[in-house]
């Protein structure tokens, strides 16, 4: 009889191999031409806004929507080119400098892409006593932009930390006093800030939210829906590939005490890198995650001290 360290109580997975292999992984219609056409239209929009110096706001909001809809990876070259131009502009129109939404969005996008930008933009929105001016307390759009920007603060940037507290406090107060659409955005942001969200989960949520906006760009929306479905199908195919590998090595059937969680491991890899071209990276990460989970369960659930010492010594010899 085995005198191990514990007894496994893990719930059986709902994502077994047979279920995974039944997932649909093929599109009934080839949308490649449609996607390419929509992509071209979005590139044209970026070019038009880039060459129109009348307002930086539309350009920044277009980039923000592209990224929130999960399309950023399709337009990396274009976005980088546009942000290079935005970063090189020394002067912004006074009405835009006085718009907290504009400058917060500009700060967040530039810092996300690695540009050196200062938190000093917040000084313009403080009163003589060092607090944020009163008119900002009910400006949902500005507060949300400030809130999201604050999560890209570097160590020691106290103004951004203060901005986070100010935005969070006032957004909480506004719940129940704004439209349902605005409240949904507030709740979503306060639940998990944009910078910490999984890209594909954020894209799925934002596609729904964006479709309800009266001024939604239908070209962007249609491309986002097609892209999400196509990428999801590709991910399902990858999940089937790693499930075949997991089934073939047979660890879950031979070591019945371990967690059979290949789908969760694959889902974790999507949080690290979701872009379709990084298939090999996702598959490799999934396999590593599954093997680490197995070893973890050997130590935490099954092995006795003597067995684990033997196992540890055996693993150490692998590197010799």
TrEMBL record:
Q: Which Gene3D superfamilies match?
A: Farnesyl Diphosphate Synthase, Terpene synthase, N-terminal domain
Keyword field: Magnesium, Metal-binding
InterPro entries named in the record: Isoprenoid_synthase_dom_sf, Terpene_synth_N, Terpene_synth_N_sf, Terpene_synthase-like, Terpene_synthase_metal-bd, Terpenoid_cyclase/PrenylTrfase
Molecular function per GO: magnesium ion binding; terpene synthase activity
Q: Which GO terms describe its biological process?
A: terpenoid biosynthetic process
**Which Pfam families does the record match to this protein?**
Terpene_synth, Terpene_synth_C
| UniProt-listed SUPFAM superfamilies | Terpenoid cyclases/Protein prenyltransferases, Terpenoid synthases
- Is Metal-binding among this UniProt entry's keywords? yes
Q: Which cofactor does it need?
A: Mg(2+)
Domain (Terpene synthase N-terminal): give its ranges: 28-190
* Domain Terpene synthase metal-binding span(s) in chain numbering: 248-318
Q: Which domain of life is it from?
A: Eukaryota
Q: What is this protein called?
A: Terpene synthase N-terminal domain-containing protein
């Amino acid at each position: 009889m085995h005198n191990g360290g514990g007894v496994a109580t893990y719930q059986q997975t709902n994502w077994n191999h047979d279920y995974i292999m039944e997932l649909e992984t093929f599109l009934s219609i080839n949308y490649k031409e449609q996607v390419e056409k929509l992509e071209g239209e979005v590139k044209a929009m970026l070019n038009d806004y880039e060459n129109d110096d009348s307002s930086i706001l539309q350009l920044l909001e277009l980039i923000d929507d592209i990224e929130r809809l999960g399309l950023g990876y399709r337009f990396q070259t274009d976005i980088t080119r546009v942000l290079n131009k935005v970063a090189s502009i020394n002067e912004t129109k006074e009405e835009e400098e006085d718009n907290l939404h504009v400058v917060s969005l500009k700060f967040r996008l530039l810092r996300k892409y690695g540009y050196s930008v200062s938190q000093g933009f917040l000084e313009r929105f403080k009163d003589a006593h060092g607090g944020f001016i009163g008119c900002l307390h009910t400006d949902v759009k500005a507060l949300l932009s400030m809130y999201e920007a604050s999560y890209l603060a570097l160590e020691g940037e106290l103004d951004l930390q203060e901005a986070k507290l100010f935005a969070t406090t006032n957004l909480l107060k506004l719940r129940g006093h704004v439209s349902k659409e605005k409240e949904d955005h507030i709740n979503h942001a306060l639940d998990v800030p944009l910078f910490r969200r999984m890209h594909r989960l954020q894209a799925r949520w934002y596609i729904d939210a964006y479709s309800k906006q009266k001024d939604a760009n239908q070209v962007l929306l249609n491309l986002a829906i097609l892209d999400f479905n196509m990428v999801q199908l590709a991910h399902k195919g990858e999940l089937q590939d790693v499930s075949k590998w997991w089934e073939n090595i047979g660890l879950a059937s031979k070591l019945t005490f371990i967690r059979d969680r290949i789908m969760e491991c694959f889902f974790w890899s999507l949080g690290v890198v979701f872009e379709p071209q990084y298939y090999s990276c996702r598959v490799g990460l999934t396999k590593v995650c599954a093997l680490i989970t197995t070893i973890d369960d050997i130590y935490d659930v099954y092995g006795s001290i003597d067995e684990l010492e033997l196992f540890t010594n055996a693993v150490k010899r692998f590197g010799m």
